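Provenance and format

Records in this collection were gathered into a single text stream. Each protein contributes a sequence line and a C-alpha cell line. The two records reproduced below are adjacent in the stream.
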Amino acid sequence: MDFALTEEQQAIFDMARDFGADRIAPHAQDWERQGTIPRDLWPDVAALGLGGIFVSEDHGGTGLSRLDGTLVFEALSMACPSVASFLSIHNMCGGMIDKFGSAEARDRWLPDLCSMTRIFSYCLTEPGSGSDAAALRTRADRDVQGWRLNGTKAFISGGGYSDVYVAMVRSGGDGPKGISTVIVENGTPGLSFGGLEDKMGWRSQPTTQVQFDDCIVPTDNLLGEEGHGFSYAMAGLDGGRLNIAAAALGGAQSALDRTLAYMGDRKAFGKSLDQFQALQFRLAEMETALQSARIFLRQAAWKVDQGAPDATKFCAMAKLHVTDRAFEVANQCLQLHGGYGYLADYGIEKIVRDLRVHQILEGTNEIMRLIISRALLAERA
C-alpha cells in the first residue's frame, strides 16, 4: 500500500500552498475585519484551475479527483480556513451541476462557474431544519412562468455576495422524495437577503439568510430530475465533508507550524519552551493527531473516487475525526502560546474561531455519529 503522493499531486499541493501564502495569508486578518473577500481574488484562483475542481475538462474544469481536492483545500487553508472553505462551497455546487445537470445545464452554468466570473452558493439549511434537512419547507410550485419559490434559507455563505444560488426546495409532498434542486440567479425578482450574521469565525465570508417571496425561476432552472434534489444534496455533502475536513486540517497544521516557531523563540526559566519535556510531549501528541487524521481523510477521499459502497460512512468518519482533532490541536496551540495566543497579532485565535464551525456545518458531528452507527448496523444485518 503506497501512501505517498504522486509528483502531480505534490505539485497541486505546492501550487495551492504557495498561492495561499502569497495572495491570501497577508490579507486574511484585513478581510476578516472587512467581513468580505475581495472579488478580484477569484479570477486569480480560477486561473490556477481551482474554480471548477470537480468539473470535467469538457466544461472548463480541471476534473480533479476527490483526493486531489483535499490537497487543494488543506493547502489553501494553511493561509485562511475561511477563504478556502468558501471556495469549497463554490466547487461543491460545480460538482453537483456537472454530475446531475443535463447537457444544456452544464453548458449554461459551468463555464462561468469555472472561470469564477460568477460565484455560486449552496442553499440547504433553513431556520427550522438544520440537521433534519429532509424537513425543509421552502416551496417550489409550478407556475405558467416556471417555478414559484417561497421560503427562507439560513446560514448561507455568500448570501447577498454570490451570483447564483443552488437551492433545495420542496416541489412535492413531505419527506426526501418531495425535494428538488433549482438554480436561482441573483437579481431575480422575489429573491432577497437578510442582514449579515455576526459570527464567531469565518468572518471574511458574508453570511445571510436567503429569502424567496414569490420568486419566479424558469422551468429549465431545475437541476436534474424533479424529486431527486435530496439525493443530489446528500451526494454533494459527501464531497463537502471531505473538503471541510481538509480545510480544518490545513488550519490546524498552520497553527502547529506557528507554535513550533514560537516555542523555539519564547524563553522561560532560562531556556526556550521547546526544551521542556512536558511541552515536547504535547507537540508529539499534536503531530500524531494531525498525521493520523491526514491518512484517514485521504483514505475516505480514495473511497469516493473508487465509488466504494461504504464511501458515505468513511466521509462521515473522516469529517468527525479530522474536524475534532483539528480543533483540539488548534486549541492546544493557543494554550502553548499563553497570553500571546489570545492576541489577534499571532493568528492563532483566528484559526481556533474558524475551525470551531467545521464541527457543525456539512452535518454536525453528532449527525456524523448517527450516519456511522446506522451504516454499522446495516452492515451487521
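Adjacent record:
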Amino acid sequence: MHAHLGDQLVVESPATGAAHRDGEIVGLHHEDGTPPYDVRWSDTDEVTLVFPGPDAHIRHLERGHPAVVRERRAESTSAVTVPTGTDPGDIGRRVAVERRRRGISRVETARRARMSPDYLAYLEEHPADPGLGTLIRLADALGTTVTALLGGGIGRPPGQGDALLHPRFRELGPAECRTLLSTHGVGRVAVSGADDRPVVVPVNYEVVDEAIVFRTAPDSVAARAAETEVAFEVDRLDEALSQGWSVLAVGPACVVTDSDAVRGLAQRAHTTPWPGGEREMWVSIRPTSLTGRRITADGQ
C-alpha cells in the first residue's frame, strides 16, 4: 500500500464492499508512502494515526486535486526548516516537554490539535515523523512554533520574534520571584574571571531551603562564585506569544562542605550537570535580593 498527501483512505465492509469510513491522508511517516498514515476522518474531522488493515484501501486523487495542491503549497512555502540529523523521536519528546511545562493534559492537547489522544501518546512515546499539518496543529495547541518542535531554534538566541503591539511590563515581588525560581532548571551565574572581568556561565541548579545550589568542578569558571557575592539569573521566553519573565537573585555564595548535606543534595538533584564529567563541588547561593520582571500582552 502506497499513498500521497491528499489521497483518501477508505475502509470498506468486507461483506458488502460498502465504504463505512473515509478520510484524507494529511501526514506520511515514510518517504515511499507506506503506512502508517495521519488521517483526518471526514465524519469527525479528527486526525488519528492509522495502520490500515485488510479492509482498507487508498483512493488516489488526481495530482492536480485541490487538496494535494494545498498541501504541497503549504510544504513548499512554509518557512519551516528541518534541522540536519533530526531524530523523529525528538519531535515527540519536545511535544511532551512543552505540554508538561504548560500544564496541559494529553487529552486536552489532543482535543486542541484535533487528533486522537492515542495518536498523541504514540507520538510522544515512539519515533514518529508527523506531517506538516499535524505539526502546525500541535504547535498551535501548545502555543509554540513548528520550528521549535523540530528543534530548529537551538542554534539561535531566543527572543527574535516581533514585540507585542501593546506590551505590559511590570516588576515582580519577592514571593512571585521565589515561585518562578523554585525547584530546578538552568540559570546563569555571573562571576569574576581570571582577569577580574565579569563572566556569565549557565549551570544546572536546584532550590533547596530557599538557597540556590549548583554543582561544578573545582577548577571551573563557575567555581569562582565561591566565597564571593554573585548574581544569578533565570528567565523564560515564549517565542510564539512574545512574552516572558526573568528573575535576578543576588547574594553571597559558599561551598557546601558538610558531607551529609552534600549527600542530601546529590540524592535530591533532579538532573546531573549537562556538561558531564566530574562535578562534585556544590555551591550554595543565599539570595539577599530577589527582583524580577514580566512582559505580557496588555490586559492580561
